[in-house]
Amino acid sequence: MRTSIVKVLAYFDLFEYPLSKEEIYAFLDKQVDKTDLKSSLAKLSAEGNIFKFNEFYSIKNDPVLVKKRLKENAQAQSLLITAHRISKFLFRFPYIKGIGISGSLSKNVANEESDIDYFIITKANRLWIARTITHFFKKLTFITGHQHWYCMNYYVDESALQIEEKNIFTATELVTLMPVCGNGTMQNFFNANDWAKLYFPNYKLSEVTTAPKSFHTGLSKLVEFLFNNKVGDRIDNYLMRLTKRRWQQKESTSKLNMKGNRMGLCVSKHCCKPNPAFFHASVLARYSLKLIDVEKRLNKAVRDDRYYELMKREA
After folding, report:
1. Helix (H) or strand (E) segment spanning residue 141
2. Partners of 274 in beta bridges
3. Per-residue pLDDT reduced to its tens digit, 263-287
4. N or C: which end of the chain has fewer CB within 10 A?
């Protein structure tokens, strides 16, 4: 359990985010008794392998991280109200079958520069029509300067709900996803990705609420009626190819976004997502290095503890 605790804290330290005891329990890689967890946390703290500040734990001896966390938690509350309102609005668009809030905001974290990220499920074989319409609307939000409220980064359609990449990063993003609208689609998504429970067997997923069946507007239904045919199939395929060409050009020139991050998009018939090579891989590499460091420190403490017990017996 000691190693599992340190692994959890090491992962969230990548984002400078201390955790409460309940959060550590939720992200442990094994089922444990909460009483045993409490005693293990106390021992790790006494050894100086982890540090406790009020109700939060960290592998860094830095109380400023707790102040930063609390400030970002408070800022997230008001932004979440906006995110839920916009999610319900986007759910009215053609072929949108499910919407969840993702990214840092889904973990109750926000600051002055935070975006609102959305995970969107579309009707099978209509992902690219849905994405094009929603992204056309996003272009209009640049006029009012609210484009950062409409970061629709990840799309899948109903025929391909399972996430391909299965690692601690995607498992964390999956279980922390906040479902907003879906008529059963979001629940189907979680069911298709129950592999995440192998990473976090103690985590309790958010409740999936059901939106009213009449939530889609008449205009949305009209668009769907017009494109529910072979013409719609051809248009969807054309929009996919067009998007793929544009993003291949951006990747070939190593284009950066406004935050200085490499731009990349994985494009397929049933999925549109940020290129994991430009972010996921970096996080996992940094996590591996951090684990080596903290496990060395933990193993040293275990060796010292065994030496102390041996000296006691010999005395």
Report:
1. helix 127-141
2. 265
3. 788 999 999 998 887 778 888 889 9
4. C
Residue (of 40, 5, 2, 9) closest to 290 by Cα position? 9
φ and ψ of 7, to 5 deg: -65, -40
- How far, in Å, are 28, 105, 111 from residue 296 at the CA level? 20, 33, 34
* φ, ψ for residue 206, nearest 5 deg: -65, 150
DSSP 308: H
Contact 101, 80 (CB under 8 A): yes
What domains are defined for the chain?
2-62+291-314 (1.10.10), 73-278 (3.30.460.10)
Task: Find tokens 């496990």 and name the residue.
Answer: 295
Q: Residues 42-52: pLDDT tens digits?
A: 999 998 889 99
For the entire predicted model, the pTM comes to 0.88
Rounded to an integer, what distance in angstroms lies between the CA atom of residue 232 and that of residue 234? 5
